[in-house]
Amino acid sequence: MEAALHTKSAKQTPCILGSDAMSTTQAAMMKVSQQALRFKGTMLPVTVMELFTADLVALEQHLASKLQDPSAFFTRSPLVLNAERLPPELMPDLAALVACCQRHELLPIAVRGGNHVWREQAWSLGLGWIDTQDNARPQNKAVPHAGAGLIVERTIRSGQQVWSPKGDLVILGSVNEGAEVLAAGSIHVYGTLRGRALAGIHGDHKARIFCMQMDAELLAIAGNYKMAEDFASPLRGKPVQTYLEAERLLLAELQLPTSNGGWRSWLQA
Amino acid sequence: MAKIIVITSGKGGVGKTTSCASIGTGLAMLGHKTVLIDFDVGLRNLDLIMGCERRVVYDFINVIHGEASLKQALIRDKRVENLFILPASQTRDKDALTQEGVERVLKELSTDFDFILCDSPAGIEHGAHMAMFYADEAIVVTNPEVSSVRDSDRILGLLNSKTQRAIEGQEPIKEHLLLARYDVERVEEGEMLTLEDVCEILAIPVIGVVPESEAVLKASNQGVPVVHDQTTDAGQAYLDTVKRLLGEQVDLKFIHPEKRSFLSRVFGGGRR
Ligand SMILES: Nc1ncnc2c1ncn2[C@@H]1O[C@H](COP(=O)(O)OP(=O)(O)OP(=O)(O)O)[C@@H](O)[C@H]1O
Ligand SMILES: [Mg+2]
């Protein structure tokens, strides 16, 4: 029998809620003690449950068998219900599906895909709706690289987002303010990093961020992040690597000879 | 076949229309048959800067909607031969610019002209999108300040993804940076970004640097593009820009403070 659903996740820990991430959050909270709260954009690793059928009985059976396995790591974890593979006219009743998940100690927090009715139903059940991958991610016309990573030979400009879902991301150019680069692995910027860089977005703690000149708005590795105001200013403009050590995001100057191609090479004439 | 050039910026009030008028006039002065199209529907002012506002009978939207022929709508410039203006409508709203209509008008003009200059409205909405969609080249007008540079960066991203050339995978649009309202004194004082700073961030070739100049406002008020007056700094800067656009090599002017003597430069005069 074909699997009725498929649960995929790289890491179960939603880092921002995890105890180790609290230190960053607390530190941030102390700084803004006058404010009641603050919203922060972040990439959390979260389990996605992909539905291959609308048949609730089959879904329930599959969940029951899957979760009997004591090594099932995703119980009690937040879950995104992904219905992108189902034809929109054939959606399972969302309330029944949510109840089914809860019986098996899974906690749906949002849906992805589905039709208009599903979205309305999600809202009334207190679930969020996540834009489908295609809508959310502007196409980057970069050439896929053999190692599942991505090499992009251009400047990433304000409003653009480049995403390497499986491996490293190499940018031969700068990442400008207002741009965002994300990778499952490490990020290498052979230029100035002025925008936001999020490495290890599926939870890889070993991922790093390298850049020739550091001027980032935000740096994140596996959900641990720092905003511009949190970095030491002496590192600005220097070649820097960012890495995780004991859940702390650290920045260190890269000891490389500074190359200076010079801006004049951009002049026509 | 005409070369289609969009004059764009993202941010408003940086000098797009001023530049479109002077660059277009310069191209015609050097013998190239040129038409300027005002895409700023509802806020037309290219005709004011060109000094032909009293001769507008039909406009771009009329042509798009088949209410007038191109021949009827094109205004011939009184000062330079080979120069025409297709004004925007002041009364219609910008959704009246349909993509098919814009394409048809550009195609028709292409057979007859050497250059088509599209004066884009500010922002990244429909009008700006239409102005850039069919472009072969883009002149990105930027002022030496952070917000203008950032908006130009955003526009460059759109030029690379939301234009016909990008969508159809043709050779990318040729991009030029025109740094306008460059005030060397204020740059020296550190109040504005330097040419180097802007080039570093935008990473595209410079086609010209136009100094902040009183001559521009005077010229606009008189409806005579500043390029006509070659005794002015801005007029010279625009003519140099046109020459570079045509492939000539011309050194950049107005990028160093002029009046300071060699000695004061050496000893810094207390400046940074
Ligand atoms: N080099 C310059 N020196 C001084 N003033 C200038 C210069 N260039 C433009 N200006 C002034 O800046 C103002 C805006 O110019 P302009 O209308 O060309 O900008 P624009 O980018 O077309 O604006 P919009 O976004 O509203 O269409 C005008 O008052 C103009 O006279
Ligand atoms: Mg204008």
Automatic annotation (TrEMBL), chain A:
Keyword Cell division: yes
Domain Septum formation inhibitor MinC N-terminal: 38-108
Pfam families xrefs: MinC_C, MinC_N
Keyword Cell division in record: yes
Domain of life of the native organism: Bacteria
SUPFAM superfamilies (UniProt xref): Cell-division inhibitor MinC, C-terminal domain
Listed InterPro entries: CAP/MinC_C (IPR016098), MinC (IPR013033), MinC_C_sf (IPR036145), MinC_N (IPR007874), Septum_form_inhib_MinC_C (IPR005526)
Gene3D superfamilies associated with the record: 2.160.20.70, 3.30.70.260
Keywords, sorted A to Z: Cell cycle, Cell division, Septation
Ranges of residues in domain Septum formation inhibitor MinC C-terminal: 151-250
One of the GO BP terms on file: regulation of cell division
Ranges in coiled-coil conformation: none
Function of the molecule: Cell division inhibitor that blocks the formation of polar Z ring septums. Rapidly oscillates between the poles of the cell to destabilize FtsZ filaments that have formed before they mature into polar Z rings. Prevents FtsZ polymerization.
NCBIfam families linked: minC
Assigned protein family: Belongs to the MinC family.
Subunit text: Interacts with MinD and FtsZ.
The name this protein goes by in its record: Probable septum site-determining protein MinC
Organism the protein comes from: Allopseudospirillum japonicum
TrEMBL record, chain B:
Gene3D superfamilies hit by this protein: P-loop containing nucleotide triphosphate hydrolases
CC terms in the record's Gene Ontology section: cytoplasmic side of plasma membrane; cytosol
Positions of the AAA domain: 2-151
Gene Ontology BP terms: division septum assembly; negative regulation of cell division
Binding site for ATP: 11-18
Superkingdom: Bacteria
Keywords, comma-separated and alphabetical: ATP-binding, Cell cycle, Cell division, Nucleotide-binding, Septation
One Gene Ontology molecular-function label: ATP binding
InterPro entries (alphabetical): AAA_dom, MinD, MinD_FleN, P-loop_NTPase, ParA/MinD_ATPase
Function: ATPase required for the correct placement of the division site. Cell division inhibitors MinC and MinD act in concert to form an inhibitor capable of blocking formation of the polar Z ring septums. Rapidly oscillates between the poles of the cell to destabilize FtsZ filaments that have formed before they mature into polar Z rings.
Subunit architecture: Interacts with MinC and FtsZ.
Family indicated by similarity: Belongs to the ParA family. MinD subfamily.
Name of this chain's protein: Septum site-determining protein MinD
